Amino acid sequence: MPAFDLAIRGGTVVTATDTIRADVGVRGGRIAAVADRIADAARVIDAGGLLVLPGGIDSHVHIAQPSGPGIVMADDFASATRAAAAGGNTCVMPFALQPRGASLCEAATAYRAQAVGRCHVDVAIHLIVSDPTPAVLGQELPALIAAGYTSFKVFMTYDDLVLNDRQILDVFAVARSTGARVMVHAEGYDAIRHMTERLERAGQTSPYGHALSRPELVEREATHRAISHAELVDLPIVIVHVSGREAMEQVAWTRARGLEIHAETCPQYLTLNAEAMKGLGSDDAMAGAKYVCSPPPRDAGNQAAIWSGLQRGVFEIVYSDHCPFRYADEAGKLNPRGRTSFRWIPNGIPGIETRLPVLFSEGVSKGRISLNRFVALTATNHAKLYGLYPRKGSIGPGFDADLTLWDPNRCETIRQENLHHGADYTPWEGFPVTGWPVMTIVRGEVVAEAGRVVGEPGWGQVIDRTVDRGGMAA
Ligand code: URP
Ligand code: ZN
Ligand code: ZN
To answer: Is the CATH number of domain 4-54+396-463 2.30.40.10?
Structure first.
């Protein structure tokens, strides 16, 4: 009997800290050895000329999430994880959303049931707390955290999700006492409502109004408020999807005061521009809706600021914020109310399959970030921040054999027709990239190869986590 189930031979193994020429030996779905030469294996994959990376972890995606009356998200677990696999990802982290007035436990149980048996890659589930009743704060949330849902998101905007300051402080206190990780969507609800109504009164109802209704200062103010609440409660929160310089400066200011805070960003804030919401060059007045997400993409100056934040370590994670709605669909971007005002256009863009190529190409291939930093930003730090480490997120004995074979020299152009998600467009249509995933391996099984998804839905597991209290005072 061979010593290994699988050997990946002749590649360059990259982790967040090292780049070495080595073979990788897999046994029982886990990495068993990283060595000069692994000979005795049942199956051999030739990785000559390729990078062997920890599989991408996309720690913030939206899959089959309730999105309001008449609106349907474009991906279920099968299609989202199919696209994730094709894009070089081995684990994704979507959100079980508590509808107002409903039980958080029931929402989590029902959401998990949608995932089981349908996923191509592994899944770990965050919660969204929209209704922090005494029962949720006192019983449901602590019970779910203990059961393995160790992270949750709260919103400072959106009619159906927004928490007021007192509620935010109360959920922060639960996270403080349980060790859960809290993500904050920091945009100010009242300021956005004020701007939205003002724009509508002035007749500015087209998709570009979305960008005008959420200027940078709306994000900066909410970021500052969230950070202040976190300081009061002594909780190291995560500021998610930071879009521009002003919010980023709040994070840097907090760190300079010696406080722990985490910050994440997305490819859209590195590569897309608010101008796209004007739909220039198209005779379709709604074309800009394809870029409507929150916070909105900003301008070239802010893109440069976010790149510098990546280089200086302000950001630890780049995820996709995949939130797919079909464009040419009454249940998506072109719902009838959306045509009357930007405020009804569902927020979110697809990106689960394009995150790694866009970041590699614009980051590594263009010399802005190192290969090791790429791995940290796309896999290792996700695992560390959200309780998947040391099971996932790196390459070494004992880690799950979650690997992506990557061709750093392959030139491709992103095209919707080649993608695997349920959306009918990509914001990166025609975007040229250098660097491409050629094989994705989840726990030792090949799930995607040469642009085809070859794994069975159901191979992906739903993973429970335990609270990592490292770095947090008791
Ligand atoms: O526009 C976005 N990002 N929609 C997804 C929900 C969220 O706030 O992350
Ligand atoms: Zn958000
Ligand atoms: Zn999101």
So the answer is: yes
The pLDDT tens digits of the residues spanning 95-137 come to: 999 999 999 999 999 999 999 999 999 999 999 999 999 999 9
Q: Which residue owns the Cα nearest ligand 1 atom 2?
A: 348
Q: Closest ligand 1 atom to the C-alpha of 347?
A: 1
Judge contact between 416 and 424, C-beta under 8 A. Answer: yes
Q: Are strands 262-265 and 317-318 parallel, antiparallel or unpaired?
A: parallel
Going from N- to C-terminal start, the domains of the chain cover 4-54+396-463, 56-365
Q: What is the CA radius of gyration of the chain?
A: 21
Q: What local confidence, expressed as pLDDT, does residue 473 receive?
A: 31
Ligand nearest to the CA of 65: 1
Distances, alpha carbon 358 to alpha carbons 92, 407, 441, in Å:
18, 14, 20
User: Ligand 3 centroid vs 95 CA: distance in angstroms?
Assistant: 9
Structure tokens given for 130: 């929209």
Which H or E run includes 185? strand 181-185
> Which atom, in ligand 1's list, is nearest to the CA of 158?
8
Judge: domain 56-365, CATH 3.20.20.140: yes
| Residue ranges around ligand 1 (CB below 6 Å) | 62, 185, 293-294, 321, 323, 347-348
Of ligand 1's listed atoms, the one at least distance from the Cα of 155 is 8
- Å from CA of 295 to ligand 1 middle: 8
Taken as a whole, the chain contains a residue count of 474
